[in-house]
Amino acid sequence: MNAPAIEFWFDFGSNYSYISVMRIEQEAAAAGARVVWRPFLLGPVFRALGWSTSPFVLQKEKGDYTWKDMQRQCRKYGLPWQRPSSFPRSAVPPTRIALANAEQPWIGEFCRRVMQLNFVDDRDIDHAGIVQEVLQAMGLPAQALWEQAQSEAWRERLRTQTGMAHQRGIFGAPTFFVGDEMFWGNDRLEDALAYCRALASER
Amino acid sequence: MNAPAIEFWFDFGSNYSYISVMRIEQEAAAAGARVVWRPFLLGPVFRALGWSTSPFVLQKEKGDYTWKDMQRQCRKYGLPWQRPSSFPRSAVPPTRIALANAEQPWIGEFCRRVMQLNFVDDRDIDHAGIVQEVLQAMGLPAQALWEQAQSEAWRERLRTQTGMAHQRGIFGAPTFFVGDEMFWGNDRLEDALAYCRALASER
Fold it and tell me: How far is B144 from chain A (nearest CA, A)?
């Protein structure tokens, strides 16, 4: 029997995605679920919904709250945290790498390292150099992976992936799907995994 | 030593407030915390933020998701649930009663009954009759309580209460305060109570 799958839609610029990226492999393993990594770009989805940027920027009150909440949430989960000096950070090169290598065994480690750069080290993550730095540090063939990921085919796949996010009703990140059931937000990761387990026990 | 207090800001028309109203007395008792009931009107707060109504109405995708989420959340908490045929319901008379009687021992029971009418029985809760029905069913002097609550003094207090919500940075309901620390959403009730306990142990 295949392990039940949890689709994990996330954006490297999204702060609550950061928490889920750091947590998901361990939590999914404990639940006996398989993570399907679905990196996408939240910016075009926001624009399709009529928002020019993150709601945390558009709505000052919610934004102010979010940064306090992030401090507390990271403390709760035992994660390091530094509010990025630029938000939300665009992250096209790392997203291309993550999309082109979503089924590699090192995908989780790659995503955690990129998130750490953004939300702990406060580094710009929107350029090819950062991606090569991460891949090299992981002992991977950085140049070859980068050339593959920036081919026109993968550029087109990223546009398709982001369009699919919008079509499936995604309006924020992280979002989890278990089958057709959608769960929004890091706060719902446990519920999504509980649903995974319930589906598996029905089979 | 006084028990630490959790301020509970809620609106009778707010669906996530429904879940917290049903849960808070039991959870706070388990945490050794005292609930300070702060009913207010979310509508004027939304308008002060530039929104004409609930974000769940303004943003179709988020709204569609919310109703699925409510079904799952209510199942998780063991609460009955029926999506109201009108949303968000205005609830001025019950809010006036709740405000004027926020320190009565029956406040929790009153709020749960009003929430049940809205989110389980799908009844209009924006009129004096419903309030009298609830108060009578609880064996309380309905007419006297209603006359007091609709005095000009309490009307003014409700405007002040709602203005205070906005001034304190509230942008949704439920919102909890423990001292100056703000927690937004039913999902944060446990965190707010954990913070209460931490404060109490520091004293």
Answer: 39
